[in-house]
């Protein structure tokens, strides 16, 4: 859309570099080209604006294959206006001098022309192709046929239109048919997935079995080593007990020998002591006998009065300490009688 500015009854148009503007006044062409900028009067001006940039036209249409199956075709056609003067002469690209808006719908006319032409060639090629072939190679075939058909269409050069590129985005059957066609592939994919799952499970089971066997082998080896360890500990214990028993026997023998030696020494000492005691007792007895004999000899030679005096002396020596003595007449008479008797004797 052209940019138009109002100034005191005049209009100023400023076009874009991608828009070809044609300005007629009084039937004469005064300005013709892209990206123009000029002043004009609205009452006497005839303006047209033709876009010369590349434009994308998306189209979707339905077709039927040779086996009577409906398919939807999605395509995109890129085109440009190569001859703006011819296009402006064949289509209404005139714009309002006050607003710069197209009075008609020239791009819709171009879209209808391109869509119907492309659809005609696509229907023609799909009508001779089965659904399976169309789904496999239909995109390339339809693209090639539509590009050739648009290039050979005489109305497009006569309108000043060049087709730059043709792209077929998708070619799809009806949803029910598409689901039916997907079923075998999905089943095959599911089978492959199941097979992969089973293989993974088998590998996992095999790995678990190998792990269990390794653990069992490890346990067996550990039990065997524990048995060896128990045997070795028993051997060591027996050896240690034997060594302790031998050491105890040696100590017991040494203790018995020492005890025997001590007993022998004690017996010898006791014998010597007994002998010494016996000898001493004998000597003491002999001395006592000699002393008694000497005492008897001495007393035998002494008179009776002396003996009585000695006896009294010895008796007095052995009597306890007497503070006072009371002698009654009877006792004194008896004692005197005994002394008198002794003297007479």
Question: Can you give a write-up of this model?
Answer:
- With 345 residues, the protein is α+β, with helices and mostly antiparallel strands.
- The protein has seven helices and nine strands.
- The strands form three sheets. It has a three-stranded antiparallel beta sheet, with no helix packed on it.
- Helix 2 packs across helix 3.
SSE blueprint:
Elements lengths: L2 E5 L2 E5 L4 E7 L2 E7 L2 E5 L3 E7 L3 E10 L5 E12 L2 H7 L15 H21 L4 H22 L2 H4 L2 E13 L1 H127 L2 H15 L10 H16 L1
Antiparallel strand pairs: 1-2, 2-5, 3-4, 3-6, 7-8, 8-9
Helix pairs in contact: 2-3
- N-to-C CA distance: 199 Å
Major sheet description: 3 strands, antiparallel
Strand content: 15-25%
For the largest sheet, list the strands in their spatial order.
Answer: 1-2-5
Based on DSSP secondary structure assignment, what is the total number of beta strands?
9
Tally of separate helices = 7
Helical percentage: 55-70%
The radius of gyration is 78 Å
The H/E string reads EEEEEEEEHHHHEHHH
Structural class: alpha+beta
Assembly type:
single chain
The residue ranges in which pLDDT falls below 50 over 5 or more consecutive positions are none
Tell the overall outline. Answer: rod-shaped
Mean pLDDT: 85
